[in-house]
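Fill in residues.
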């Protein structure tokens, strides 16, 4: 099987592999040669694969995994390859989760500002009392 992992800026992995493990919202799953066509949304996690007797790891910041004709493609916002699973899990995934929390907070604040602006505009469109004119 061929595995490719890409981010918006670069191709992180492009190699032949024997098997792969990844994680989506329903949990961890594996892919072996001959797997049927498959599409899923990955969570922030570590993807691992085996090539001969070596294991390799890549922390991904969510993304989409597809299996088509024996080829596995992962498109993600950010990916970090590492040989030490503990380091990837403790440091990289923690940073990915923190970044995700910051983005969620920023998005919430942005929506709140937009709603306040809309409320203000709507209040200005209310007719003045007893005049039929708008403010």
């Amino acid at each position: 099987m061929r595995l490719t992992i890409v981010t918006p800026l670069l191709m992180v992995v492009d190699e032949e592999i024997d098997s792969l493990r990844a994680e989506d919202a329903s949990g961890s799953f594996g892919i072996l040669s001959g797997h049927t066509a498959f599409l899923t949304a990955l969570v922030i996690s570590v993807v691992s694969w085996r090539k001969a007797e070596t294991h390799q790891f890549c922390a991904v910041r969510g993304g989409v995994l597809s299996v088509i004709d024996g080829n596995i493609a992962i498109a993600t916002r950010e990916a970090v390859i590492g040989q030490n699973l503990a380091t990837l899990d403790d440091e990289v995934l923690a940073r990915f989760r923190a970044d995700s929390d910051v983005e969620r907070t920023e998005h919430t604040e942005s929506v709140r500002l937009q709603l306040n602006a809309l409320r203000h505009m709507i209040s200005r469109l209310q007719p003045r009392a007893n005049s039929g004119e708008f403010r």
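The chain has one domain: 2-122.
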